[in-house]
Amino acid sequence: MLTLAVAEMLGGASDDALDLACAVELVHCCSLVLDDLPAMDDAHLRRGRPTLHREHGEDVALLAAFALLNRGYALVAESSQRLHLSRYSPEELLHHLAQAIGTDGLIGGQAMDLANGGAPPTLADLEYIHSHKTGALFLAAAELGAMAVDARRRDLAAIGAFAKNLGLAFQIEDDLLDVLATSAETGKDEGQDASKVTFVKLLGVAGARSLADELLAFALASVTPFGRKAEVLCRLVEFVAGYGNLGTRQVTFTGAGGGGRAGDG
């Protein structure tokens, strides 16, 4: 959704970005399969159904995850050849996806998340972990949408700031769901993060919501220059604001300014 919305906002057709959107979703699904494995989160439920390894075994789950990952790369390569972009090469599009997945992105964040031998993570640690996990996928989704329509470099930077802040806010709202919602409501294991240090554990429910609101305000500020063209992105911000309370929380953002904070450190 984010990939297509960005492409349309910048004057392109959503069809131009559809394969790139699918590529990010393939990577996302791969990450869920791997996160759910016994060696990772050992989850039992995903989207209201048994996790893949519980349904079909760890061997099939691992093969499926790598099949999804490789198909994602193939889609980016195929799509970038068809688009004939002037500002971005096929290699640059592939590099964006690879960077989101690798040690500077999703894998690096997950590795730090799994490292529990030392002191409990600080707020800065959590921001690092989730800006490299959830945030990296949001960033790839948004930037690939912009690149699909040959966006100007300065527009790509604004979209990146939007996505980083939106992604980290989404993770905070997900932490809220983990403590406020049931498995029937989320389709995931209830209290899956009970043994982890989360934004809610560090800041409390009110503090976590306040931080999410701050990040969402920065996200909105990043796309303010696009005016009414950014309406769909603004609706995504509203969706994320209500996500951690199952859509019942109404938030009004005022006084947003600056370029955002997610990933600044």
Q: So what's the overall shape?
A: globular
Please summarize the sheet with the most strands.
2 strands, antiparallel
| β-strand number | 2
Whole-angstrom Rg: 18 Å
| Content of β-strand | under 5%
Secondary-structure element order, N to C: HHEEHHHHHHHHHH
| Helical/strand content category | mainly alpha
* Strand ordering within the main sheet: 1-2
Structure notes:
The chain is mainly alpha-helical. The protein contains 12 helices and 2 strands; from the N terminus they run H-H-E-E-H-H-H-H-H-H-H-H-H-H. It has helices at 2-9, 14-36, 52-56, 58-83, 90-101, 106-114, 123-132, 134-148, 153-180, 183-186, 199-223, 231-243; strands spanning 45-46, 49-50. A two-stranded antiparallel ribbon has the order 1-2. A hairpin with a 2-residue loop joins strand 1 (45-46) and strand 2 (49-50). It starts with a helix and ends in a 22-residue tail after the last helix. The model is unreliable at 247-260 (pLDDT under 50).
SSE topology:
Layout: H1 2-9, H2 14-36, E1 45-46, E2 49-50, H3 52-56, H4 58-83, H5 90-101, H6 106-114, H7 123-132, H8 134-148, H9 153-180, H10 183-186, H11 199-223, H12 231-243
Antiparallel strand pairs: 1-2
Helix pairs in contact: 1-2, 1-8, 1-12, 2-4, 2-8, 4-5, 5-8, 6-7, 8-9, 9-11, 9-12, 11-12
List keywords for this structure.
265 residues; mainly alpha; two-stranded antiparallel sheet; 67% helix
